[in-house]
């Protein structure tokens, strides 16, 4: 089996991770998480399923 030379990693915490938490997550906290993902150089983040 030949593996691809490149792989894309997509962060889905903003979509799948936050939806699985029953307690309300303040918007400011969500913004902080997004800012940290941007600073970590994630180029693709899934934050909506529709």
What does this structure look like?
- It is a single chain.
- The protein is mainly alpha-helical and 50 residues long.
- The protein has one domain (9-50).
- 40% of the residues lie in helices and 0% in strands.
- The chain is built from two helices and no strands.
- It has helices spanning 13-19, 27-39.
- The protein is elongated.
- The relative contact order is 0.26.
- The mean pLDDT is 82.
Task: For this entry, give a set of tags.
50 residues; 2 helices
Shape: elongated
How would you state the average pLDDT, rounded?
82
| Through-space gap between termini | 35 Å
Low-confidence stretches: none
Computed over alpha carbons, the radius of gyration is: 14 Å
| Topology order in helix (H) and strand (E) letters | HH
Brief characterization of the structure:
With 50 residues, this protein is mainly α. The chain is built from 2 helices and no strands.
């Amino acid at each position: 089996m030949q593996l691809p030379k490149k792989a894309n990693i997509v962060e889905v915490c903003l979509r799948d991770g936050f939806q699985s938490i029953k307690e309300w997550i303040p918007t400011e906290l969500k913004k902080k998480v997004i800012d940290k993902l941007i600073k970590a150089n994630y180029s693709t983040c899934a934050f909506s399923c529709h």
